[in-house]
Amino acid sequence: MTPGRPRILVSGGTGFLGDAVRPLLEAFADVTLISRKQPGCLRADLAKWDGGLAPETLRGKFDVFLHMAGLYDLRATKREAHTQNVVGTHTALTITQKAEIPHFVHISTVAVAMSAGTAPIARTDQLESLRTFPDAYSETKAAAEQMVRTWSSPHLRSRLILRPGVLVGDQREGKIHRIDGPYHAAEGLRKLLRIASLLPGPLPLPGRADRFMPIVPVDVAADAIARLVELAWGDQWEGLRCLHLAPAKGLSSQELYTSTLRHLGHEGQEFILMSRLPDWLVKPAAELLVRFPQEELEYLLNFPRYDTRETEAILGANWCPEFRDFEKEFWRGYEAFVSHR
User: Among positive and negative, which fits the CA dihedral 273, 323, 187, 306?
Assistant: First the structure.
């Protein structure tokens, strides 16, 4: 251990977000990864109540537990999501308590505020009032976050909950690991444009003018997480804080489709948003016509706006770019992925 460097225990350090966060943490901290199988990591299984290890043997060895592990799958069963997101978070908190780790950082998601979609702005203190969720993913992530909020331990000095927006490729190359979220617009429009000449009038596309997708480049989210972890440890934060890691405005459906059509070489193609039809009709129609998964359409149609004032006060007003600032890289990463799949 290097003197003056925090010792950070990390779960979920090898996923899409973890790969971006890990090198940033290693620049200022001594990092230990939790993994069930990967060599060189602390062997633990968060699906077991104590991780399958003896947490008491870790006392005095770590300053921060960064919990990023979880299941992101909008079509996951309730059981699968519960095991990975709820049980896994309970185990992480149990290890934190028994190992007497003073700072716990939990990576949640803006999806936990989805049932606040009728509210003008989703606040970070709204979780307790939410009752319905669109899928097992958002419901179990909300349950995990609630557990972090209410967890009590005499050795736990601070709990920091971070809610990243919809993660997309990094700002440099736009590199991605799979097609989901806004990338499905290109997948669907490629198919729809083939039959566009057979459809009378503008293309009908799902979306609402008053809804904005909170997309965040993965490297930007990673930098924010690393900076906030360092602040929580260095400034010895106390108590509970919850922050939205989302842009001030976000990406509208209109902007998404305009950019997609421009990228596909159909900049002059007219389209209209199917905003006056009920969700139960729009979602199956969009999956049929545009091949946009219904589970993801729920988010596109009903994302609330997110209160980011405290995040901006800490990280700066321009910490998160808007889509126009990395649009070229976004499409570069998409094309690189589809050309190799």
Answer: negative
